């Protein structure tokens, strides 16, 4: 039997299953998960722009004593600066204008701008020593999403989809939503792309207007029966192509066409929140009724999780406060605070938090020194990758702890550093994946999400 025959039989088998409506769930790689997972799925609430750890989580009371003084060179220690502050002649220390208190039995520090998050502090683990070498947005976000500073690597969701497969027939394994708040740095499709992995593993972006997913509706005058007939005919032609050339992308595309056909039924049901009880909107807030808001996307994330979606990625932008931080940071916190806490609470009430890992954080933090002119009422902060805070909750994570210590300036790590690759390795571990063994051979090399680094942060695991 030739390779041509093999691919033809494989594709015919796939088309037969699709047409007959039999079992279609996409199982992952043989041998995965590598060990018993604590989490079945991930909901990643990515705060693009770099939320300030100093205002939100990393309490530094001595900064009041240092206010307006120049950051000591012994602390800055030759740190590489961004183009925004490299020309400054001084680096005046500025403490937070907002209060921070210890919350719950765990005593975790949470700022007053996040009152809802503060109420669930005992369900969360705060990792205060996340760090990255990147100092600019695009490479820093790309590092978090793909494990490498340059484009061209698969996203974390694509890796998870590739390794573990799907738990649902009627929705993609990897879904993406971006809040429609309008501001902030651009986010590119490659951040949820599959790169050199087969395209079936890339994230599917949901929109807030029109078709939730592009090209989902049939054209005017084109019925569901027409579409089924069209797909069957297209499948037959692709079967010939796959048999002739043996290109796995042909099989992947057939699978994607069939998924889109099934999504015509599943997506309208998913996005119809009219049957949600009033208590849902009391929990998430009225913003959850407005498509495209962070709150609406958090509610949709819970509904996706209920339906078996493996990796759910939310992006919220405009955390980049180089100036006007006292006026702008409260707005971003208001956007996300209630909904983030509601999602964790909602999952817990439904018995889903134990097997759902929730992650909240940005690509870096902010500097303790003021960028630009410091006044009595206004200041800004530059990018800071040496130490910042990410919180996690749910599947596999030990609740109610704060991990890692920074110096009195929240500038350097004193104890227990957690690199981006360590965080990625820990997320995969919760899913039952050994990050060193989830690889894909491309151009003669075995690639992985964590590149050639990464250690699981065992201290935060159950």
Question: What is the fold's blueprint, element by element?
Answer:
Layout: H1 3-20, E1 41-47, H2 53-56, H3 63-66, H4 73-76, E2 100-103, E3 108-111, H5 115-119, E4 124-131, H6 137-146, H7 156-164, E5 174-178, E6 204-206, H8 224-245, H9 248-271, H10 278-284, H11 294-306, E7 311-316, H12 325-349, E8 356-361, E9 365-370, E10 381-384, E11 388-394, E12 401-403, E13 405-406, E14 413-415, E15 418-419, H13 420-430, E16 440-442, E17 445-447
Parallel strand pairs: 1-7, 1-8, 4-12, 4-15, 5-6, 5-7
Antiparallel strand pairs: 2-3, 4-11, 8-11, 9-10, 13-14, 16-17
Helix pairs in contact: 1-8, 1-9, 8-9, 11-12
Please provide a written account of the structure:
With 462 residues, this protein is α/β, with parallel strands linked by helices. It has one domain (34-226, 263-460): Alkaline Phosphatase, subunit A (3-Layer(aba) Sandwich). Helices cover 34% and strands 16% of the residues. It is built from 13 helices and 17 strands. Strands 1, 4, 5, 6, 7, 8, 11, 12 and 15 form a nine-stranded mixed sheet that branches. Strands 2-3 form a two-stranded antiparallel ribbon. A two-stranded antiparallel sheet has the order 9-10.
């Amino acid at each position: 039997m030739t390779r041509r025959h093999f691919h033809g039989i494989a594709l015919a088998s796939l088309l037969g299953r699709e047409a007959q409506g039999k079992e279609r769930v996409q199982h992952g790689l043989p041998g995965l998960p590598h060990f018993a997972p604590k989490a079945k799925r991930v909901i990643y609430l990515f705060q693009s722009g770099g939320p300030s750890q100093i205002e939100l989580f990393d309490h530094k009371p001595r900064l009041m004593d240092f206010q307006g003084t120049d950051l000591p060179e012994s602390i800055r220690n030759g740190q590489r600066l961004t183009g925004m502050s490299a020309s400054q002649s001084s680096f005046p220390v500025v403490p937070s204008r907002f209060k921070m208190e210890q919350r719950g039995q765990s005593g975790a520090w949470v700022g007053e701008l996040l009152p809802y998050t503060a109420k669930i502090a005992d369900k969360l683990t705060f990792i205060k020593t996340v760090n990255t070498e990147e100092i600019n947005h695009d490479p820093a976000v790309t590092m978090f999403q793909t494990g490498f500073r340059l484009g061209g690597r698969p996203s974390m969701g694509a890796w998870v989809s590739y390794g573990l497969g799907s738990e649902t027939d009627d929705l993609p394994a990897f879904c993406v939503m971006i809040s429609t708040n309008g501001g902030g740095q651009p986010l590119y499709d490659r951040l949820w792309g599959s790169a050199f992995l087969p395209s079936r593993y890339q994230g599917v972006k949901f929109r807030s207007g029109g078709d939730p997913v592009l090209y989902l509706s049939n054209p005017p005058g084109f019925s569901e029966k027409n579409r089924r007939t069209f797909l069957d005919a297209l499948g037959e032609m692709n079967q010939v192509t796959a048999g002739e050339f043996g290109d796995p992308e042909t099989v992947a595309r057939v699978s994607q066409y069939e998924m889109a056909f099934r999504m015509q039924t599943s997506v309208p049901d998913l996005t119809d929140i009219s049957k949600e009880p009033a208590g849902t909107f009391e929990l998430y807030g009225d913003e959850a009724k407005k498509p495209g808001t962070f709150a609406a996307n958090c509610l949709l994330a819970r509904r996706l999780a209920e339906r078996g979606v493996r990796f759910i990625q939310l992006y919220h932008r405009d955390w980049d406060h180089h100036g006007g931080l006292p006026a702008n940071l409260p707005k971003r916190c208001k956007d996300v605070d209630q909904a983030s806490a509601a999602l964790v609470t909602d999952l817990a009430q439904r018995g889903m938090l134990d097997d759902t890992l929730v992650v909240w954080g940005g690509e870096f933090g902010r500097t303790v020194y003021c960028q630009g002119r410091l006044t009595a009422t206004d200041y800004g902060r530059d990018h800071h990758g040496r130490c910042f805070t990410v919180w996690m909750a749910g599947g596999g994570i030990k609740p109610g702890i704060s991990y890692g210590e920074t110096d009195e300036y929240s500038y350097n790590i004193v104890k227990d550093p957690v690199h981006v690759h360590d965080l990625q390795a820990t997320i995969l571990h919760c899913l039952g994946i050994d990050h060193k063994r989830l690889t894909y051979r491309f151009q003669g090399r075995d690639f992985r999400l964590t590149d050639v680094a990464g250690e699981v942060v065992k201290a935060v695991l159950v």
